[in-house]
């Protein structure tokens, strides 16, 4: 007889951007590949082969561009349109396995699983196979009683081929779990920042094992409620709920409805409210986001029609503008079915960065009227190629132009850029 | 099949029979039966796509599948979740490229076969390592 318990699974896509590029260009398989951030030209995702070359996260592209050819290194600009579409496909698939899907970022989500523990493990294995088969992306699954432990289990599943991509914390022998926790630095635990880690080290708490053994109340007194929750979670008590997990990786705004929403109009209202809620959270934290995901779901216990639409919308530029976020979230509406009782909806803003990190001129025609004058003045003072609208205005051969050349096609969102299959 | 009735040659939009336009067909005060005629327009997504998560559109380059009615420049609906069978038109990964052929599974071996006499069948010596990217379900042939 296997033990029954509700668990939390963390599913994430391995090297999401790299894997997305490879899904449509198999020639990239097995070759070193990095994906660059669109705006500043830094490495933001690396294939294992690129890691093996010693390229670290955040390396500016210009610093390695010279050697790229010698290394046989492939480089791509961020194709947010492609990643957004593939993300939405993955999330829709994950929603088929749980009544409680919490999208955490563009490439990871928490799922509640119930039933016997070994059945939960089998579900994890099935999810891995199905996402691979349907979308062509590799995922890893970590399953545990709490989110913090699910993160750890996921990390373990990734690092150890023996797990075959799925690790259920409760099915791992006690002594193995202990040795994992003892080897893991506190700074590597989800929710423990570098500063907290330093202060923890100062009082002799170095490993995850040390932190798990700490007194939660003492930690709350010395540090914060947030860190106390991490301790409790490491000890197996689930206490980080969806509404609270607004780290600096994402801002989530999601609610269950008091009475089911059954019309597109009502869903429109709900999404507007949530998008604006997310916008004000971003503003409070002085953050801007580049991708918004909107979702809705029917009850997992409903015997009627089930529906779990998801859209992932890349924004033209980083923003915390409630209007832009609301408009993007509205893209969910065509997928919302009239008459179907939805019990939950929400929005998640991801790919965050501090507000004001870089000023970009709008490229969608929404520029204020005096932009032309401004362009003119700057151009006269600093030369005509010093400033431009979008990428049209920049001089040929600039960094920006080069980066556009490294953009893969919008395989799934543009009719003119479909993947080409060879009939030769 | 009911299509959007607005004619191309400037003809007046057609209406389904029983329309109350003109109001002469039915006694006044009677609930309009026209509402029974309203239904959503045909949605190709609903009819041509079984599972949106695994469906991709690709474009054909070349004439190797001409004999199967699949021409250069045609678009194909591909379902990555389908299990390829003997006779399936598949997108296979060969030397890092996406290649379209018909899959033939026989006791004598596995082949990827073109639908054009100019192209030799491609033998698959090690079927376990053959990567099938997806199975074509429809061809959007340009007529």
Question: Could you walk me through the main structural features you see in this protein, from its secondary elements to its overall organization?
Answer:
- The complex is a heterodimer of chains A (424) and B (143).
- With 424 residues, chain A is α+β, with helices and mostly antiparallel strands.
- Chain A is 38% helix and 21% strand.
- In chain A, the strands form three sheets. In chain A, strands 5-6-1-7-8 form a five-stranded mixed β-sheet. In chain A, strands 9, 10, 11, 12 and 13 form a five-stranded antiparallel β-sheet that branches. In chain A, strands 3-2-4 form a three-stranded mixed β-sheet.
- The longest helix of chain A has 21 residues, at 264-284.
- Chain B has one helix at residues 44-48; strands spanning 55-61, 75-79, 89-94, 97-106, 109-113, 122-124, 131-140.
- Chain B has a seven-stranded antiparallel β-sheet, with no helix packed on it.
- Chain B is elongated.
- Mean pLDDT of chain B is 83; it is low at 1-24.
- The interface between A and B is medium-sized, with 24 and 32 residues.
- β14 (420-422) of chain A pairs parallel with β1 of chain B.
The portion of residues assigned to helices of chain B is: under 10%
What structural class do you assign from the helix and strand content of chain B? Answer: mainly beta
The total count of strands of chain A amounts to 14
Provide the low-confidence segments of chain B as ranges: 1-24
Largest interface: A-B, 24 and 32 residues
Can you give me a brief rundown of this structure?
With 424 residues, chain A is α+β, with helices and mostly antiparallel strands.
Any key phrases for this structure?
heterodimer, A: 424 residues, alpha+beta, five-stranded mixed β-sheet, five-stranded antiparallel β-sheet, 15 helices, globular, B: 143 residues, mainly beta, seven-stranded antiparallel β-sheet, 7 strands, 3% helix, 32% strand
């Amino acid at each position: 007889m296997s033990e029954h318990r509700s668990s939390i699974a963390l599913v994430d896509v391995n090297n999401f951007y790299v894997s997305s590029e490879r899904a449509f260009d198999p020639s990239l398989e097995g070759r070193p590949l990095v994906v660059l951030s669109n705006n500043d030209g830094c490495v933001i995702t690396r294939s294992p082969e690129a890691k093996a070359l010693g390229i670290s996260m955040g390396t500016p592209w210009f610093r390695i561009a010279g050697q790229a050819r010698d290394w046989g290194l492939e480089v791509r600009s961020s194709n947010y349109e492609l990643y957004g579409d593939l993300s939405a496909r993955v999330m829709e698939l994950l929603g088929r396995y749980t009544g409680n899907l919490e999208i955490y970022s563009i490439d990871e989500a928490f799922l509640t699983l119930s039933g016997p523990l070994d059945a939960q493990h089998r579900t994890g294995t099935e999810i891995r196979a199905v996402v691979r088969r349907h979308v062509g992306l590799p995922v890893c699954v970590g399953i545990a009683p709490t989110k913090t432990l699910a993160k750890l289990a996921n990390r373990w599943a990734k690092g150890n081929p023996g797990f075959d991509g799925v690790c259920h914390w409760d099915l791992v022998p006690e002594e193995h779990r202990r040795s994992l926790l003892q080897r893991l630095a506190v700074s590597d635990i989800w929710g423990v920042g570098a500063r907290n880690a330093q202060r923890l080290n100062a009082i002799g708490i170095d490993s995850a094992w040390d932190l798990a053994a700490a007194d939660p109340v003492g930690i709350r007194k010395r540090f914060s409620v947030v860190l106390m929750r991490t301790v409790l979670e490491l000890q197996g008590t689930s206490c980080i709920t969806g509404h609270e997990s607004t780290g600096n990786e994402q801002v989530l705004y999601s609610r269950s409805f008091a009475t089911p929403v059954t019309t597109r109009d009502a869903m429109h209202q709900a999404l507007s409210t949530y998008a604006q809620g997310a916008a004000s959270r971003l503003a409070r934290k002085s953050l801007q986001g580049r991708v918004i995901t909107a979702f809705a779901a029917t009850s997992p216990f409903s015997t009627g029609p089930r529906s779990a639409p998801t859209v992932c919308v890349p924004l033209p530029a980083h923003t915390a503008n409630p209007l832009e976020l609301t408009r993007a979230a509205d893209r969910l509406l065509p997928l919302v079915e009239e008459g179907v009782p939805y019990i939950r909806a929400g929005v998640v803003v991801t790919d965050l960065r501090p507000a004001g990190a870089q000023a970009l001129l709008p490229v969608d025609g929404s520029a204020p009227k005096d932009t032309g004058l401004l362009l003119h003045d700057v151009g006269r003072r600093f030369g005509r190629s010093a400033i431009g609208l979008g990428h049209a205005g920049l001089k040929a051969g600039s960094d920006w132009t080069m980066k556009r050349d490294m953009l893969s096609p919008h395989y799934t969102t543009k009719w003119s850029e479909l993947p080409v299959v060879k009939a030769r | 099949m009911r299509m959007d009735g607005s004619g191309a040659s400037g003809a007046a939009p057609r209406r389904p029979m029983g329309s109350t336009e003109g109001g002469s067909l039915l006694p006044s005060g009677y609930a309009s039966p026209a509402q029974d005629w309203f239904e959503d327009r045909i949605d190709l997504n609903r009819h041509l796509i079984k599972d949106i998560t695994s469906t991709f559109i690709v474009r054909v380059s070349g004439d190797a599948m001409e004999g199967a009615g699949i021409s250069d420049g045609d678009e194909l609906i591909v379902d990555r979740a389908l299990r390829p069978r003997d006779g399936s038109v598949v997108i296979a990964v060969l030397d890092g490229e996406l290649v379209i052929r018909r899959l033939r599974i026989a006791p004598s071996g596995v082949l990827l076969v073109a639908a054009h006499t100019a192209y030799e069948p491609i033998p698959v010596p090690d079927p376990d390592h053959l990567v099938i990217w997806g199975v074509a379900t429809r061809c959007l042939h340009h007529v």
